[in-house]
Amino acid sequence: MDDHTAGGGRADTAPDRALPVPDRLLSVATRLFAERGFERTSVQELVAAAGVTKGAMYHYFASKDDLLYAVYQRVLAMQTERLAGFAAAEGPIGERLHAAAADVVHTTVDNLDDTRIFFRSLHMLPEDKLAAVRKERRAYHERFRGMIEEGQRSGAFRTDVPADIAVTQFFGAVHHLSTWYRPDGELSGAAVGAYFADLFLAGLRPPETAG
Amino acid sequence: MDDHTAGGGRADTAPDRALPVPDRLLSVATRLFAERGFERTSVQELVAAAGVTKGAMYHYFASKDDLLYAVYQRVLAMQTERLAGFAAAEGPIGERLHAAAADVVHTTVDNLDDTRIFFRSLHMLPEDKLAAVRKERRAYHERFRGMIEEGQRSGAFRTDVPADIAVTQFFGAVHHLSTWYRPDGELSGAAVGAYFADLFLAGLRPPETAG
Amino acid sequence: MDDHTAGGGRADTAPDRALPVPDRLLSVATRLFAERGFERTSVQELVAAAGVTKGAMYHYFASKDDLLYAVYQRVLAMQTERLAGFAAAEGPIGERLHAAAADVVHTTVDNLDDTRIFFRSLHMLPEDKLAAVRKERRAYHERFRGMIEEGQRSGAFRTDVPADIAVTQFFGAVHHLSTWYRPDGELSGAAVGAYFADLFLAGLRPPETAG
Amino acid sequence: MDDHTAGGGRADTAPDRALPVPDRLLSVATRLFAERGFERTSVQELVAAAGVTKGAMYHYFASKDDLLYAVYQRVLAMQTERLAGFAAAEGPIGERLHAAAADVVHTTVDNLDDTRIFFRSLHMLPEDKLAAVRKERRAYHERFRGMIEEGQRSGAFRTDVPADIAVTQFFGAVHHLSTWYRPDGELSGAAVGAYFADLFLAGLRPPETAG
DNA sequence: TATGAATGAGTGTTCATTCAT
DNA sequence: AATGAATGAACACTCATTCAT
């Protein structure tokens, strides 16, 4: 009845009818949660936009929360996989960290919806799922921190600032991207990635290089 | 039904009964919105915790949204005022920016509730109020950017990264504080502020100082 | 705050500020009750439109119901007085009834707001006030019926239809005026009055005149 | 809270539990709206009297307004159908109009609740639904007017009063029935119908028949 | 005569979820 | 694998009225 397709714009991306029902739901949920927020999106709107019935949704997902959780898992898996690549690569740590940093910005910008949901709706997850997401997130950050510590041990990075702080600062900036970055603006994701990585790496240079 | 004994979370901080009703509501709202999120806080809980009736709340605030907006205005006013101080101070731009950066971290950490609400619930504001908040926020960022540009003109800061990007990156990290900083942890607000400012300023050093 | 003056049009008839407060309230109430209906008009809107405070209203009227009742009383008094004039006049009963019938249509059309309220909101009155209004209304109808009976006795009107039925039928049509008559239409109140009176009187002619 | 035992008014006519939910709601709504008025009937009372839950009601009707609208549609359909019969019948126009007029009175008296709601609560409908009802109502009146014009053309009825006015006057009286007719009084619906039709038709006789 | 803060019961409506089929 | 009628608790908000001043 109510066809709330309107709203934030975006080319009426009706999900591919050929896609399996769970994927269709996941993709529609990602879009709607990002556009309207998790709590402003009703299950009714969701299933209508996905072209399935409520019953079908509850067949695949235990709850609306569960759908949100599934969205998170998809994002986390993707990010973790990419980072693993940079961590395991060859080359000077400075270059590898720069590449990893630029890449996380780039892929974040390519999946702004996911990020938007991530930081806006994380607190809507039930305690247990929240813990699971946080755990995986922490693992991701630790991998990143490991690279910084590697550079600190090798003398490439400053040691007067804890690696933790640097990681936190950097990801804070990354997460914040979804609140200001506009895909139709003049800055490409790669450009922002380069700038961010430059600033980040420059911040990590040992202070004595300035003397 | 209207249960006037507060109920929930944090050292049962019943707001000072002597405080005027609007202030009481504002302070309770800040706490509850931060604890449970805006959407998860019902008007009923709110007024119960503040020890007033719904009618009283709607006498002073037009809606639940309006209460959220009032919380925002209070934060924005405070932040804007502090920044103005640093911008107008004397001394080398590098030192003034370092001080301003450290201060914004420090005061953010001292008002984590506000920040948490800010970035979690901004999207729940109605369009018009959202625009007003964004406008004021932008003015704040521009003032900060002005300091960076001043340093770029004087040669103190690198010019190969836009001031905009630097501002955005820094505030991204600041906003993110509310998701990880714990007041009862080992890092003081001042310490985090110092680290953040160090990293930030180091990131802004002209690249040639490295050569 | 909310200045609902808009709505049904009508030249923003702000009531004369020089008028005594009770009259101002009465006149504003008549307009708003007719425009939006009794229950859709809040006391807040009412006092705002009248330019007084709630306290002032409750000083003069015991309740919102009471205000409605006062509106009724004003109308009833006016109608009763006019009818008395026609009943007591000289001349053939047919002519006097025709004049009275045309007049009630005319004055109804001149006070459409009152009529609209009368039939739309009568059921919102509390039992006791409702009874009072009905009683006065009945007295009015009986006076009208008296004129018909006078004509029946004198042989001017048919006797095969009860006078009651004729009165009821006629006033039904009169009350209904407020649902279709438009002051800016092509029919004047006097014209409608003449037509209605013609039909009414013709209906009352003794059937044998047709033979 | 959700109290499934009905509560109030009239020989506790609990609606047939076997009836489908929408019909049950419609029938209960008709009764309650007529008894207490639309505004004075809360959705809570309504569903309690119908023995269903609020959720069930909102499953079938979009709003309380929508329920009122559904009541209207049912009445309008019934009336329109009956009138069509008389308009299409054989015989002198005077007799057919008399029969139609008597019948509309009779069926109105048989469905007083519907009529009461019709004229008391029409103004509570939202603009768009109001327009739909008015449109159908107008069509009904025009059909009736068509019969009068037919008689005017054939010389059976007077032509010095517009057919429109006659229709309006007659239906005004019909609508008014719900405010005074009592089913337990001494007048049967058929009797009132006959009287009304007599008066109405007599009023339409050409004036020269009086000479 | 008038104010306006405060009351508190009540309103229509929403919505995630269940379950017989 | 999927339907859709039904649930029931919760929600934001309204409003006539009171009362200390």
Describe the structure.
The structure is a homotetramer of 211-residue chains. Chain A has 211 residues and is mainly alpha-helical. Chain A has two domains: 1-61, Arc Repressor Mutant, subunit A, CATH 1.10.10.60; 71-210, Tetracycline Repressor, domain 2, CATH 1.10.357.10. In chain A, 69% of the residues lie in helices and 0% in strands. Chain A contains nine helices and no strands. The longest helix of chain A has 27 residues, at 127-153. The first copy, chain A, is elongated. The termini of chain A are far apart. Chains in contact: A-B, C-D. Chains A and B meet through helix 8 and helix 9 of A and helix 8 and helix 9 of B. Chain B binds a DNA duplex (21 and 21 nucleotides) through residues 1-2, 21, 42-44, 52-56, 58-60, 63-64. Chains A, B, C, D: Residues 19-79 form the HTH tetR-type domain.
Task: Predict the CATH topology of the largest domain in chain A.
Answer: Tetracycline Repressor, domain 2
Domain count of chain A: 2
Unreliable residue runs of chain A: 1-12
What is the straight-line distance between the termini of chain A? 69 Å
Oligomer: homotetramer
* Number of distinct beta strands of chain A: 0
CATH class of the largest domain in chain A: Mainly Alpha
Structural class of chain A: mainly alpha
Largest interface, C-beta within 8 A:
A-B, 38 and 38 residues
Largest sheet of chain A: none
Helices of chain A, by number, come to 9
The assigned CATH architecture of the largest domain in chain A is Orthogonal Bundle
The CATH superfamily of the largest domain in chain A turns out to be Tetracycline Repressor, domain 2
Gyration radius of chain A (Cα, Å) is 20 Å
Task: Tell me the overall shape of chain A.
Answer: elongated
Order of secondary-structure elements of chain A: HHHHHHHHH
Which percent range fits the helix content of chain A? Answer: 55-70%
Strand content of chain A: under 5%
Average pLDDT, all residues of chain A:
86
DNA-binding region (chains A, B, C, D): 42-61
Pfam family, one (chains A, B, C, D): TetR_C_24
Domain HTH tetR-type (chains A, B, C, D): 19-79
GO molecular function, one term (chains A, B, C, D): transcription cis-regulatory region binding
